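quick one before i forget lol
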Amino acid sequence: MRMRTTRWVTVALAVAVFAVPVAADEMQDAMARADALNLFRQIDLQRGQARQMIPPLQRIVRLVETHEQQRKQSLNRMESTLRRARQQLVAGAELASEAEEAMEQFEEQREASQRDLYRSVDAEMQAIAEVLTREQNELLDWTAPASIRPERNMEERLRVQQVAMGRIQEAGRMLDRVKHLDAFNFVTGRGPMLNDYLAGYFRPDSPQFREAYQITLDYTDEVRMLREEQWQEQGLEIATAMVEDLGLMPTVDPERRPGAVSWRSLYRLVTSPETLEVVREMAR
């Protein structure tokens, strides 16, 4: 226990007194910039998406800056206590109970502050995820660890249910319009209607779009053959099944995807000011 306390006091004191060398900062910035460029090229980030990502990234940078300022202020306030504690430990003396209590309280506050930062940044990360298409998000795992994103409360579950119902109703309206087209427009107008519907969820030139187009095509064929009373009875169920088959049904607790870029890697990426600069350049 004493070895752990000695190490903690030594590290904390070093952080409070010494700055990171400029050369190390420049190297880290260059690496962070390269990481951001590589990821955005991998997911084929579009200019319009980059523009939408700027506000949440700006908020993340401000969150991190505020957290760092508060952390440094807290360390500075503890500096004299840390120095005395280190001197006592090096001399083999027992820590004064007041100093030990002060350091335990400091550590608890530090951990709580870090958790708050994780959760605040995670909320902005989810906003960034909504900017991207389904196929882009398949390469990224936005699922935060359970310690960071606790059990969703009833209000959040209700929000997800509302999103799901909105997508089901949208799918039902599209299917209903296609079903009631006359014979000529069913042949000539169905394709553009499906394209317009799917463009809200998939990039038109992607394999996922083509797969989704075939799925919706099959569903419109099925709906077209139903009698009107069958459609009225089964329409909601069919629209729900189509949304699920398209992979558009939102969930409260998304599963983690092996092979995707992890949440922690994404966290490091979005909290770097270099990422914001890269996105600004891509948005021009």
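fyi The chain has a mean pLDDT of 84.
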